[in-house]
Amino acid sequence: MRDWLSTYVNLSGGIPSKWTLERVVSLIPTRCLQPLLAQFLEGIKINGTIAIDGKTLRGSRGWNDKSHPLHLLHAWSVEQGICLGQVSVANEITAFPELISQLELKGCIVTTDALNTQKSSAKAVIECKADYIFPVKENHSGLLEDIQLLFQEADELRFCGIDAAHSETIEKIGGRTESRSYTKTHKKPCIKRCENCRQIADRKWHSINSIQCHLRSTIFGVLASFNVGFFMSFGMTCDTGANIPKF
Q1: Which of 44, 64, 99, 206 has a CA 20 to 30 Å removed from the CA of 124?
Q2: What pLDDT digit, counting tens, does each position of 143-199 carry?
Q3: Which CATH number is 30-59+67-129 given?
Q4: Domain boundaries defined on the chain
């Protein structure tokens, strides 16, 4: 390690301690590191799933009682296992399009949490020529209710005449058995048959081309749990059950 470092800096006083390294790195402006990161990423072919998520850094709050800890929104490549970019934010919803616009995501599938399931987020992803799978939860209560009613209506029809696909997976991890069931309906053919899909279209989510229902049952010893999640997606590369965030 010393021989390698000595090719870049003078180590006559020995290798700096980790505290010295942390102090020096913390003094480097992030705007100077961003072009270097972009140059590094140019040599990497980004594909697959990109997870957008926000995190508050522990211990980043200043001494002032009015100061707030640093909150970052970052893009994580699931396949490459690297962070593609991040921005310091006060509001994730408004920062999402800014972060997406900095990345080359053509052909990728973008996932995020329910907070960023927004029309502006969907528009930003499509403008990058990427696909998305967004969860739908109570923060869009009207949209969630429409999707729940859609699947209820489709189930009553036994999906007869409805363009849908279904798949199931079973995983055993650490004594726990998880069964997952995925059902995906294509929006346009569904509109002709299900009244509630028309309501989804009326909510101006024009970019949606499929809606998905994800059922998960977990058995651990004598304990059992059951969860239901709903997702909406855009893009032909979004296969049933693939790339859906686990919850």
Answers
A1: 44
A2: 888 888 888 888 887 877 777 888 899 998 888 899 999 888 876 555 555 555 555
A3: 3.30.420
A4: 30-59+67-129, 138-234
